[in-house]
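Quarterly update from the structural biology core.
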Amino acid sequence: MIFSEKTPIFRLLSVDLGRGGRTMGSGTAEKFRFCIDRGGTFTDIYAEVPGRREIYVMKLLSVDPSNYDDAPIKVIRRILEEFSGERIPRSAKIPTGKIEWIRMGTTVATNALLERKGERIALCVTRGFRDLLQIGNQARPNIFDLKVSKPSNLYEEVMMVTATGMSHLLKGSLGNW
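Predicted structure, tokenized:
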């Protein structure tokens, strides 16, 4: 079932979450906790609400521009509104002081790479490791096969940098590399 604006949040009842009603993380929290899996079609959300032993889950379309700009933000806003009793306007920022943590994963980028869709990419490696991904681990399904077929590279070009240059690149500043 896909949730709409009028659909109540699905609640799993009678779930014993153990120590103080919490299993994700340590101790009992007085803030909201969210786990989000944003896929290409659906976004699944698991929420722990302060003072409640039940867990709450929702499933939304990942892209639904007529109803919301971003599925994870939409569901976080909706759960905060329902359980805090305070309305959070769509134009307002999420009150992060009420949230202990958000754990989010996505398959969108992975799928785009595997399907060879999306933006062009380059591989940035430390100088001397240009062929690292092509060499791989030499695993072959049939060791005596004379014609080895390998998939094409995900990247178009390789940028090699010094170890110092890599450090600057990871910090967001290339400087003199």
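Residues 99 and 126 are 39 Å apart (CA to CA).
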